[in-house]
Amino acid sequence: MKKYKHIFFDLDHTLWDYDANAALALYELYDQYEISKIADCTKEQFVAQFFEVNESIWDLYNKHQIERAHIRERRFATIFDRLNIKLHIAPQQFDIEYVDLCPTKENVFEGTHDILNYLKGNYKLHIITNGFDDVQYTKMKCAKIDHYFDVVVTSENSKSRKPAPEIFQLALSKSGATLQESIMIGDNLDSDIMGARNFGMDHIWFNPEKKQSQIPPTYEIQALYQLRNLL
After folding, report:
1. Residue 40, pLDDT above cutoff 60
2. Distance between CA atoms of 156 and 60, rounded to whole angstroms?
3. CATH of 18-104, one of 3.30.1490.190, 3.40.440.10, 1.10.150.240, 3.30.160.40
């Protein structure tokens, strides 16, 4: 096993449980605005529609086809239109409230704190995320994982997005790491795994759903505790 010194983590869907936290925030807003009284949709349908729309919009953002402002303009406008929800506030205001609330939720994947404690003693830990500064820092602080990381590189502060090599290069420069002593851990095949692979960085695919991939990663895990056997 190669001796690594720097570990670069993705944040959403790898450490911070985006789906669980988003659902909690959406349930709260659904109740707050009494959506069940004005639209024929359950909480579960509302959340399911969010995930479908959100994934497609973020895919456009990661491909540089839209900018940050477009995410917040389109997301709930599309959802409200599909579910025929007519609130007294604009979809963009609803989005602001969601973005304020969701990052304060604390759910992380099972074993996150244990594995970060284990790794922190032997490695420099960093974050590379396609999220935005204000939101990502709030997530890490509220989930009590911010103190583990030395360098946090976002798509906003790097002006680049995974899988582009520029964001990985900036992460190396900021952390003082070399490519040979670095490894990337993430869930997204396109942005995390292919991004690291094309940059020449070893990588670990966090794959709890046991998805199939045409291109084998350097390593693969289904649970974070398995990092103990690799690092």
Report:
1. yes
2. 16
3. 1.10.150.240
